[in-house]
Amino acid sequence: MIRRWTMMIFALIFVLSNSYHTFAKDKDESLTIRSQAAAVLDSTTGTVLYQKNGNKKMYPASLTKIATAIYAIEKGKLDDKVTVSKNAASVDGTRVYLDEGEVVTLKHLLQGMLINSGNDAAIAVAEHIDGSVPKFAEHINAYLKKQIGVKHTHFVNPNGLYDPEHYTTANDLAKITNYAMKNETFRQIFGTKQLKWNGESWNTTLYTHHRMLKGEIPYKGITGGKTGFVNESGHTLATTAQSSNIHLTVITMDAIYKKNAYKDTKTLLDYGFSHFKTIKVPKGSMFTKGKKKYEANKDLFFTKNLSTSVKEEVEKNGLLKIVDKTGDVIDEFPLSEKKVHAAQGDLPHKGKKEDSDLHSSIMVSAVSIMLFFMTTLFIRKLIRKIKR
């Protein structure tokens, strides 16, 4: 039991530390990124492939709603009936035109919040989950730190309207988006291009504001997206995409022009797809170190730069290290020790000796019996000759 808990703690420490693994220096001068901050991550491993001012405090605008959505999905129930308050119905900015007293399901509010960026829907969600916006802010900040491991994020509202104390970073937003994308409900809404909206005051079809997801800016493999803008934040953009080799998450923040946010996103997607691949070490894979054998007790994933080779090395404590050709460790995983039972034909030395002794004993007994019969037969023949 102690051994099991030790391995679990080791694995937890690894997961928390691995989320900050990076291939990129703070800024790769070979890429031209116009946004003030940006990050592209391997969505599966969390590895940072490129960052520009990745940990600089920035205003997220409506990218805040990514965090609001996953928090509400995990804490609430999608079929909950939510009564819209006066506070929610009168909020500024982009809306889905909710009426005070209107009753809407939590899932429908999340759809209006992510697809059409409804600030009123976001307030309604926050008040339903935690009773008030201040309580929501207190709880979501604790959730983001504990559940996702953000380091430089502090929110005061659920929609991203400007407040000097409402901030995050490109790296933190990428981590939040990665985490959210592991949830099926979030993925479905985040990737929705259009949706019929039947509200008390507004019957329409909602269309995503993300031009790459909608197809206005064609790019193969886009799986989800969210836009954001307030004067203080500039244009912010969150995008997820996939190829046969890798799934990517891209965040760009504070672009002066909307077109620059999309150009930067395309540049980062091109870079990620052309330079990296996610490698899977299947569950059950066996490794040997000396006389001990170790096993991967779950699927393990690491990010490989396509321009370099890697090899696997196992430490004495069962730690699997992925090492590139320069000797740098690019990832590591704790393995479980596998107890190997000797096969019948490969018994330990003592067992072989016991088998040999038994075999010799049987041979001696057989010879003794043969001698007994031969002796008896000889005596009988001798007696017959004497009688004659």
From TrEMBL:
Active-site residues annotated for this sequence: S62 (acyl-ester intermediate), K65 (proton acceptor), S117
Binding site for substrate: K226
GO molecular function: serine-type D-Ala-D-Ala carboxypeptidase activity
Peptidase S11 D-alanyl-D-alanine carboxypeptidase A N-terminal domain segment(s): 30-255
SUPFAM superfamilies documented for this protein: beta-lactamase/transpeptidase-like
Superkingdom to which the source organism belongs: Bacteria
GO biological process assignments: cell wall organization; peptidoglycan biosynthetic process; proteolysis; regulation of cell shape
Chain segments annotated as transmembrane: 358-379
Signal peptide: 1-24
Entry annotated with the keyword ATP-binding: no
Entry keywords, A to Z: Carboxypeptidase, Cell shape, Cell wall biogenesis/degradation, Hydrolase, Membrane, Peptidoglycan synthesis, Protease, Signal, Transmembrane, Transmembrane helix
PANTHER family reported in the protein's UniProt record: D-ALANYL-D-ALANINE CARBOXYPEPTIDASE, D-ALANYL-D-ALANINE CARBOXYPEPTIDASE DACB
Family affiliation: Belongs to the peptidase S11 family.
Record-given protein name: D-alanyl-D-alanine carboxypeptidase
Organism of provenance: Falsibacillus albus
